[in-house]
L-lysine 2,3-aminomutase (Thiolapillus brandeum), 340 residues
Amino acid sequence: MIPLSAPSMKTDHWQQQLAGAFNCVEDLLSFLDLKACQEPGMAAADNDFSIRVTHFFASLMEKGNIDDPLLRQVLPLGAEMENTPGFSTDPLSDQSAHTGYGMLHKYHGRVLLITTGACAINCRYCFRRHFPYADNQVTPSQWQSLVGQLHRDRTVSEVILSGGDPLSLANGRLHTLIEDLQDIPHLRRLRIHSRLPVVLPDRLDSTLLDILADCRLSASLVLHINHPREISTELTQALLPLRHLGIPLLNQAVLLKGINDRAHIQIALSEELFEAGILPYYLHQLDLVRGAAHFAVDDQEAAALYTLMQARLPGYLLPRLVREIPGAQSKTTLPVSQNR
Ligand SMILES: *Cc1c(COP(=O)(O)O)cnc(C)c1O
Ligand code: SF4
C-alpha cells in the first residue's frame, strides 16, 4: 500500500527549498564571497523591498563577482532609493486591480488572474515592489466571485494565471483553481506565467505534471528568463516532461541595463532558449517603476539592439520588443527600423 503521506512529502520538497530562500543581504553576499561589497545603501533598499532569492538561483551566480548578471537582478542597491521623474509606484495604472486580488481584463479574449502575491524571488525591477499584502492569496470567496464572472463572460477564451507567481501556490490549491476553470465551457486555453521553474526547477514535480496532463484546456507555460546563464541543466531537465506533454513553452524577458542589453547576450539567450525547447515570446521594455530607473534602457538603444538581433537570428527566435502602455488594446511593439 502506498502511504498517504508520500505525495505531500514530495510537494514539501520544493516548498521547503522555498522557505529556506535567502532573505538577508549579508547571507547572500557571504555565500558568494562578497561580504566586503556590502554598502550602507543596500539596507535602505532592502527595507523598501526585501531581498528574496532561492539557493538554487544563487548557485548559478559566479562567486566573487558583484556585477554578476543574475546577482544584479536581486541585490538591493542604494540607487533604488533615488526618486527619478517619470518612475512611479504604479506604472501600469492598475493599482486598484492589483491591491485587491483578482482579475485584469485589458485585452480581448484573455484575462489575467492574480492568484497570489507571492514569488520565489524578488526581482528589483518588479512592479510588485510597491504593492501591499504581497504574500496574500486570493480568498475562496474572491475566487468564487471571479469564477462566476468568467462563467458569465463568453468573450473570454483564455485565462492566464499570474501573480506574483502562480506556481508558488501548493499543488492542491492549483488543482482546485484549474478544475473550476475547466468547468467554464467557453474557456479554451490556460496559460501560466511563472519564473518559479527558473529559480527552483524542482517545482515542476510529478503532481503538477499530472494536473496539467489532465486539464481539458490547452495549456501553455510562459517562463521569465532574462539571461542565458539562467537556463540551467536542471531547468532543461525539469521541462522535458512538459515538452513530452506537448505543452508550448515560451519566454518573456525584461530588457535590463547592465544585465542583458548587449546584442550578443540576447542572441545567446534566444539560441539557448531554443535548445531548452522554449521559444522567445516577448522582450519587454521596463515598466517605469520607482526604484528601477537604473535598469532602464532608452527606446533608441533598445531599437538599435533589436536591429542587431534581427540581422543575426531566424525570425522564429526573435522575441517581440514591446512595452506596456496603460489603456492600449495589446502590448505595444516598439518601432524598429528594418533596413540597416
Ligand atoms: C500582458 C498581459 C496579457 C497577455 O498578453 P498577450 O499579448 O496575450 O501575451 C493579458 N492581460 C494582461 C492584463 C496583460 O498585462
Ligand atoms: S518573478 Fe516576476 S512577479 Fe515575481 S518578483 Fe520577479 S518580476 Fe516580479
Notes: The chain has 13 helices and nine strands. The longest strand covers residues 218-224.
